[in-house]
Amino acid sequence: LAKTTQPISMDSYEGQEVNITCSHNNIATNDYITWYQQFPSQGPRFIIQGYKTKVTNEVASLFIPADRKSSTLSLPRVSLSDTAVYYCLVGGLYGGSQGNLIFGKGTKLSVKP
Amino acid sequence: DAGVIQSPRHEVTEMGQEVTLRCKPISGHDYLFWYRQTMMRGLELLIYFNNNVPIDDSGMPEDRFSAKMPNASFSTLKIQPSEPRDSAVYFCASSRPGTGFRSPDTQYFGPGTRLTVL
Description:
The structure holds two protein chains of two kinds. By secondary structure, chain A is mostly beta strands. Chain A contains no helices and nine strands. In chain B, about 0% of the residues lie in helices and about 55% in strands. Chain B has strands at about 5, 10-15, 20-25, 30-40, 40-50, 55, 65-70, 75-80, 90-95, 110, 115. Chain B contains no helices and eleven strands. Classes of the chains: A mainly beta, B mainly beta. At the A-B interface, strand 3 and strand 4 of A face strand 4, strand 5, strand 9 and strand 10 of B.
């Protein structure tokens, strides 16, 4: 079971780059790393997914070191609208087990003006 | 696509009453998930289906909870009888995994149903 550990909360200011790190020491060889964003009163929304090295899309970048025991979500130049809870998930659907679909408590990011 | 649709958006009921939550997944998605979210416990997976068949219901808290998926476009989560501690936001999500045995999957969540049991 690939349990993840993230900071409970983070504060930032508009225009800054924010990096949220997730630890997943027990990641399995075939596990992927996925990040979701959740705004108040809404369901989580997919942000980015990766397996190794670096992945970038129009919203964020995901950095995964060679040992894959951690990953870092990078949000460039955050704005007030990036205030949300960010979840790191490791794994996926396989073997009929829900054990990999654990969202945890996430990281509450507060962006200030 | 309209996304995942859930109804009702809000439900207020009294202890002991039956509650039925409904979900319509995204067309073409063959996985459907039910989650519960509270401040104390965060987001918990209750059960998920693949091709309308329940795969893992180990997250269902107790026998008062039941879920069905009679067809690919509809699922229900029922609580009978409801209790105050069931008050939470219930999310439905669907996904269509990629290829491969351990394929990555992106879940698309509905807006949720906020349940209050008095």
